[in-house]
Design goal:
Blueprint (H helix, E strand, L loop, with lengths): L1 H16 L6 E7 L6 H8 L2 H8 L4 E7 L3 H10 L4 E5 H10 L7 E8 L4 E4 L15 E4 L5 H14 L11 E3 L2 H10 L4 E6 L3 H5 L6 E5 H5 L6 E6 H6 L3 H18 L1 H11 L7 H10 L11 H10 L25
Parallel strand pairs: 1-2, 1-3, 6-7, 6-8
Antiparallel strand pairs: 3-10, 4-10, 5-8, 5-9
């Protein structure tokens, strides 16, 4: 009798509460390097789940790693991920080419404005004009943000129409290989368009010097990585942009407030034989203002990309290229 009563009570309670809501998966494309640290923190601390709950959503975030903006774009358009972080120029091309279609890509949150630094290992190279035809400049890919910064800087240094003056100097190398080449000095690689933490490692070598920074080219910070998603995803999930923005805001705040904890999370996600936690912590202290959800540099990129025919329908305002959840944030 007792067992039957207990079973009946349990059944009544289950009927009253209803079945537990199934978790909704949300797949996030991420990449390699300290620039993706806010996404590493969001993963480690379940921030998307946390802010999803606050928005009345039961989310389960999954993080998939890709190498390069092209792979990220393919993943977003194929539906392999709902949102992904990639270079701002690639996002602007995706925004333009799929304009007014479900596949049009919009910025959801800035990830980092960490500067891209062109360094050289020869004492006679201090400007772009000092690179000889035999001096190779390494960067991750020929369509990377580094390439656009080099083109914009070349146009300013050599004149209109000269954006590809140094294109034949460029070689595509992964960051670890480029770092090894620039430090060894025993190859044809004399320049390296680097990003953190590879910049800081290279500059430990006394023969390596800074030629220019993306901050010089843009007159201030410009977004290196931006989290983007399609119109289809954003319209089908109207709360998603707010959840993702809030998650990356909290992650960026943690980097500023607790750089050591952020350093530990970074090294857990990307173990390093070159950097220890003290060094990463020190690096993050110098990068405190390089993480945040604002999207910057859109106008400079778009103006250049329109001139060379890569953006056919340039936006009148940077806000056209991002979800409305970012309209109140600092941007340019």
């Amino acid at each position: 009798m007792f067992a039957r009563l207990a079973f009946a009570a349990a059944a009544l309670l289950a009927a009253h509460i209803g079945p537990a809501a199934a978790q909704q998966p949300i797949r996030i494309g991420t990449g390699f390097g300290i620039g993706f640290l806010p996404l590493m923190i969001a993963d480690e601390l379940d921030l998307i789940e946390k802010h999803g709950t606050a928005a009345g959503l039961n989310l389960r975030a999954e993080y998939l790693r890709f190498s390069g903006s092209a792979a990220m774009q393919d993943a977003i358009l194929s539906g392999a991920v709902e949102a992904g972080g990639y270079g701002l120029p690639a996002l602007l091309i995706a925004w333009d080419r799929a304009r007014n279609t479900p596949n049009q890509v919009f910025g959801i949150a800035g990830i980092t404005t960490q500067p891209l630094i062109l360094i050289a290992n020869k004492p006679n190279i201090s400007t772009l004009a000092d690179f000889a035809a035999t001096d190779k400049i390494a960067m991750p890919a020929l369509v990377s943000p580094q390439m656009y910064v080099l083109q914009i800087a070349s146009e300013r240094a050599f004149g209109a129409g000269q954006q590809d003056k140094l294109r034949n100097n460029v070689v595509s190398l992964p960051h670890p290989d480029a770092l090894a080449a620039i430090v060894s000095g025993g190859t044809e690689v004399s320049g390296y368009f680097s990003s953190a933490p590879f910049t800081q490692i290279a500059l430990r070598d006394p023969k390596v010097r800074v030629v220019l920074s993306s901050a010089d080219v843009f007159g201030g910070p410009a977004s290196f990585l931006v989290l983007g998603g399609t119109r289809r995803f954003l319209q089908a999930n109207p709360k998603a942009a707010g959840v993702l923005k809030a998650s990356l805001e909290e992650a960026s705040d943690l980097i500023r407030r607790e750089p050591r904890r952020a350093a530990e999370i970074y090294l857990k996600a990307e173990p390093s034989r070159t950097l220890d936690v003290d060094q990463v912590e020190a690096l993050l202290k110098t990068m405190a203002d390089d993480f945040g959800v604002g999207v910057r540099g859109v106008k400079t990129y778009v103006d250049f990309m329109a001139r060379i025919g890569q953006v056919r329908n340039p936006p009148a305002d940077w806000k056209e290229t991002v979800d409305p959840v970012l309209h109140a944030t600092p941007g340019s």
